[in-house]
Amino acid sequence: MVQHGPVPSSDLTRAHAELLDAQDPLRAFRDRFVRRDDELVYFDGNSLGRLPSETIEALSSAVNDEWGTGLVRSWERWIDLPIRVGDRVGRALLGAAPGQVVVCDTTTANLYKLAWAASAARPGRTAVVTDDANFPTDRYVLAGIAAARRLEMRVVTADPVDGVTAAAVSAAIDDDVALVTFSHVDYRSAAVAEIREITDLAHRAGALTLWDLSHAAGAVPVDLDGWGVDLAVGCSYKYLNGGPGAPACMSAGSCSKGCCRRYGAGSARRTNSPWVPSSIRHLACADGSAERRQCSA
Ligand SMILES: Cc1ncc(COP(=O)(O)O)c(C=O)c1O
After folding, report:
1. Which of 28, 67, 139, 209 is deepest in the core (most CB within 10 A)?
2. pTM of the model
3. Which atom of ligand 1 is nearest to the CA of 215?
4. Which domain holds residue 102?
């Protein structure tokens, strides 16, 4: 049984630490990472966690076999990888049915694409909402889009410990709001936002939601379809051990009635170009209502 919370000072002995290690259910994973210096105590998770041993062989095979030997023929395998890996990430980690998640680009680039498309899908609305503890680049991107589209940017103050709660953001969300965007897990405090409640709140006001899952994917349960989340971004370079240069992902959810399935990744599949922003241009229900929750199908 793993103990949580502060360890009593009397337990701060090597013997007790080794006992806890021995009882740790995640212990076996340790051997799946490269450890070249057993004296090193490594806590860095800043996109540069330890190297998974399997990555060495996988990268070597991609360069030597797929590029070196396969040359252009390797396109056959590569071209759909963003979608195939996206489906696996969606199923295993994000609670998203196939066809909604594409692995591509960086978190920031994906956030830009989705936030731009989302604000365009709510014509006539004049505001976007985020919080002051959201990741800096997320806020900068949103501020840029707000300036370009002449939208008011409403920045909620989040509690540093409790994180983003529905109660704290409810006053900022009304019928003028096009997009509500927060991080699911706070990158500094690890506070978990009330994603389901806030998503419901935004939908009741007719707004779209966009969640940054960078620190949630692989760390806490995520259920995008169950929560009815419209849009999400995340990355493979935190708890998924992607390492430097690894891609991020973006998700565009499907209408619960199915009429607007795949308006994100689906159009990417048709064009074979999941990296192209136009893949999310069709951010609207098939009936043209541009209101995922109000479609008539
Ligand atoms: C929560 C969160 N959002 C966005 C980003 C930005 O990621 P990138 O610089 O790869 O676009 C990061 C990077 O650490 C992050 O932690």
Report:
1. 209
2. 0.86
3. 1
4. 81-294
